[in-house]
Design a protein that fits this description.
This protein is mostly helical. Helix content is 81%, strand content 0%.
């Protein structure tokens, strides 16, 4: 039993059990299945790659827009405030971009408020210092000249005011004088007319005797107002020299132009 059972037992052990025998198709399906699984995963990997690429492109686009907005704000800050008094924030920017814009605007405002550093006179050359001194001297001269001109203008204005007042006063005085002269002329004319009537009523011999001694100016005024019929007898009774003189004076008086 022991001698015959050894090979038989070995063959039995080497024979595969029923239901577990490996077929050639099953052995060949292992690598194919892995390849199929990899092919099925390829679309998923491509979708994930496209999704990641879209996210990266979106982030890059946001960064580009944020950079453009920052450059715009910086340009506006350098150019100064607009006519409307404000700067509109770019639409579509995220929270991070808005913070960057605000920070950039604050930095520009701070830089604008910083006082400029004074120039160091030690750094100037001798020619520049002489030029500055000459300009300062020239400026002082111009200021002094301007003050003098302003002072002269004030004096001229005051003098013009006084002159206008004097002109008004002189016009008033002139009116008063003209009124007095007119009144005096009326009175003188009245008196001369009375004298003419008196001498006209006198005898020619008596009038001639008085006219020989009368002042020439008064005599001319009386003669010029008397009628020719009254003056002829009086001239005939006057001294010849006196009659000649009064005749010449009357002729000259009529030919002389009237002076206003």
């Amino acid at each position: 039993m022991t001698g015959t059972t050894g090979p038989v037992a070995a063959r039995k052990r080497s024979r595969p059990p029923e239901g577990r025998a490996a077929s050639p198709n099953a052995a060949a399906s292992g690598p194919s299945k892995k390849l199929i699984d990899r092919i099925k995963l390829l679309p998923v990997l491509m979708f994930v790659a496209v999704l990641l690429l879209s996210v990266k492109i979106n982030d890059l686009w946001k960064d580009v827009r944020g950079f453009r907005a920052t450059v715009t704000v910086a340009t506006v800050a350098e150019a100064g405030p607009s006519k409307s008094g404000g700067t509109a924030a770019p639409s579509g920017s995220g929270p991070t971009t808005a913070g960057q814009l605000a920070q950039a605007a604050d930095d520009k405002n701070v830089d604008a408020k910083k006082p400029e550093k004074p120039l160091d006179p030690v750094l100037f050359t001798r020619s520049e210092i002489e030029l500055l001194q000459e300009l300062s001297k020239r400026r002082k001269e111009l200021d002094a000249r301007e003050d003098a001109v302003i002072q002269k203008e004030g004096l001229l204005a005051a003098a013009e005011d006084r002159l206008e007042k004097k002109i008004v006063e002189l016009q008033d005085v002139r009116g008063e004088i003209e009124a007095l002269i007119e009144k005096y002329d009326e009175q003188e004319e009245k008196q001369l007319n009375e004298l003419v009537q008196i001498y006209a009523k006198m005898k020619p011999k008596d009038s001639a005797r008085i006219f020989n001694e009368l002042d020439m100016d008064v005599l001319l005024q009386v003669f010029s107002r008397m009628k020719a019929g009254k003056t002829a007898p009086i001239l005939a009774n006057m001294r010849p020299a006196r009659a000649k003189e009064i005749t010449v004076r009357i002729a000259e008086r009529k030919t002389m132009p009237k002076i206003n």
